[in-house]
Each structure stands twice: as structure tokens, then as C-alpha cells.
Amino acid sequence: MKPIFKIILAVLIIAGLILTLKPNNNEESSVNIYSSRKESLIKPLLEKFTEETGIQVNLVTGSGDGLLTRLQNEGENSPADLFLTVDAGALHRAKSASLFQPVDSRVLNANVPAHLQDADQQWFGLSMRARTIFYSNERVEPSELSTYMDLADEKWRNRICIRSSDNLYNQSLVASLIAHHGEAATEEWARGLVANFAREPVGGDRDQIHAVASGQCDIAIANTYYFGGMTASDEAANQETVSKVNVFWPSQSEQGVHVNVSGIGLLQHASNPDEAIQLMEFLVSEESQAWYAEANQEYPVRPGTDRSEILTSWGDFEADTLSMSVLGENNAAAVRLMNRAGWR
Ligand code: FE
């Protein structure tokens, strides 16, 4: 071989070596997450995670049901490692569709209370919301209020606003009442509640709270973060509503206030499970917990984490410690019961 060819060969071998090695150096580790939460409620945290670990995070946002269908259609070809969504009922649906795999993490177990995670460790709560009573501070004395069950009393005839029974939040509330009071008593309650509706269910949680302020009803049942968002908002309509409506914590001498979670699970076909678990653990760190909860006026799941100023202003309450798993398990019974009770 001529010297020139030897040199060319040597150059080619070295170039080949560099090319084979380079992809490994360049190949950044990454994690892919499907999320039904608004981008602004999670993106800054994901960026912080990348900054700290060098792991890239690819975020796909969409509706909870849409992403669940997408995950089912993609099957083992899905690029997703993690699924983040709201309501224990929705997390239970994903679990029932065999989308998740269990995660045994010391960090997750130490920071997410047992009742706020799946009994089989297939998903973990990240933030908590309460579904509570909002009342008119002009037409209702807080001393008249007591428990969820009391809302079926005829003293509340034509005075209650709540959204429809196809809403998962209401289904989870009823699922919790079934667990505490049994199906028969809960059905009787639902009939009484429906009889007390001020109007046919219409709109979302915010609409029910606004309806209390505008005088269409005296009481609404809604999730706390909607009222938190109104309180933080400088829009006149929201400020007007906040000035006329107060928060009440029901069932304090019974099971406590019904709570639910936003949560996350590691997907069955995750191709980056180590990075995904690292991200799950990052999301329950004290700093992440405080930020993530405050971004949507929710309660942190990690005990001892600071709450937002607005949440603190509503005072402390006893929360129901029923396992979130039960909300999913009782979902079908809750839906049937609400239908029988005529809850549209
Ligand atoms: Fe919501």
C-alpha cells in the first residue's frame, strides 16, 4: 500500500472511531411526558429539572381522555414515559387500561402520604384539591352548614348549585360518600340533593360559584383552586364574586372534607424508566411541591410544605383520609347511583 493510502486509511479509521463514539457523547438522556395540565402549570418545573440533571424533558399536553386514548392506540410504540393527569378517577382509568407499571421508590413513599397514592404504587398524587362548600355571605350563616349529607335537608330547597353528574369531580365526591355512608344512604342523599337544586346543572365549577354571587343559588359545591384562581385574579367579575362568597369546610366531625389529587404514573412501555422515576422524585421535593401547588392554588401533598397565602387565608381543615384508590373503584357505582337519583 502506498504511504498516501495508508494515511487516508488511518484518517478514515480515526474518523470512523470518532463517529461511533460521538453519538454516545451527544445522546442526551431524556424523558417524555403526556400531561393533561396546562403547560404553564408544569413547564417551569420541568425546565428546572433539566437544568439540575441535564435530562431533557419533552412535554405533550392534551385533554385527559384524549391522551388516555392516544396512549392506548400507541401501545408499546408510545414514546411516552409518564402520564400526568387530574382526579383519582382518571388515574384509576389509566391503571385499569394497564397503562401504568408500579414504582417502588423510597423518595415517593416517604413524601406522598399512602392514601394519596395508588394502593399498588401505579400512580402518585402530586397536588391536592378540596371539593367543598361555597356559600353566600349575605343569605347563609355558616352555623347553618355542617356536613355534605346535610345538603339533602329540605331547608336547602331550590338553593344549591352544582355541575352535572357526568363530571368526574362529582363522581369522585359521590364515590367517597358511598365508601363512608354506604350505597343506600348515599342514593337517598343524592335524591335529596337533586330536589334542592336551584337550577338544572349547567357550566363548570366557576359558574356555580359565580351563580352564588349573582343570587341564583345560596350554596355551590366546587373545587377550591377555582375560587383560589378568582381570588388571585384582578378581573372585576371575579373580585365581585369573591367579595360575596365564603369557603366552608364540611363534615369536620365526620370523615372530613372530600379531597382529590393531580397525579403521575410511570407508563408500562416507558423506554426511559430511570429518568422518568428521577423526574417523579424531583416533583415531590419540597421546592417543587411548593411551586407546583401554588401555580394552581392547590395543596401540596408533601406534609409540611408551605401553602399559598390565599389557601392559608381560608384556614385549616380536616381532610378525608380515604384512599384515593377507592374513588376509582367506586366510580361505576357512583355513576349508576347519580343516574338513578335523577342527577342530570
Ligand atoms: Fe378542574
From the alpha-carbon coordinates, what is the Rg to the nearest angstrom?
25 Å
- For the record, give the distance between the C-alpha atoms at the N and C termini, rounded to a whole number: 87 Å
Tally of individual domains: 2
Average of per-residue pLDDT values: 94
CATH superfamily of the largest domain: Periplasmic binding protein-like II
Distinct helical segment count:
15
Shape label: elongated
Classification by helices and strands: alpha/beta
**What compounds sit in this structure?**
fe (iii) ion
Helix content: 40-55%
> Could you tell me the number of beta strands?
9
Name of the top-level CATH class of the largest domain: Alpha Beta
Q: Which stretches are low in confidence, meaning pLDDT under 50 for 5 or more residues running?
A: 18-26
CATH architecture designation of the largest domain:
3-Layer(aba) Sandwich
- Give me the CATH fold name of the largest domain: D-Maltodextrin-Binding Protein, domain 2
Protein model, in words:
The structure is a single chain. The chain has 344 residues and is α/β, with parallel strands linked by helices. It has two domains: 30-128 and 261-307, Periplasmic binding protein-like II (D-Maltodextrin-Binding Protein, domain 2, 3-Layer(aba) Sandwich); 129-258 and 319-340, 3-Layer(aba) Sandwich (D-Maltodextrin-Binding Protein, domain 2). The protein contains 15 helices and nine strands. The protein has helices spanning 3-26, 43-53, 64-74, 88-96, 106-111, 168-181, 183-195, 205-213, 224-232, 236-244, 273-283, 286-295, 309-313, 324-329, 331-340, and strands spanning 30-35, 56-61, 82-86, 124-136, 160-161, 219-223, 245-248, 258-266, 299-300. Helix 2 (43-53) links the parallel strand 1 and strand 2. The longest helix is centred in the N-terminal third of the chain and has 24 residues, at 3-26. It is elongated and about 105 Å long. It binds fe (iii) ion (FE).
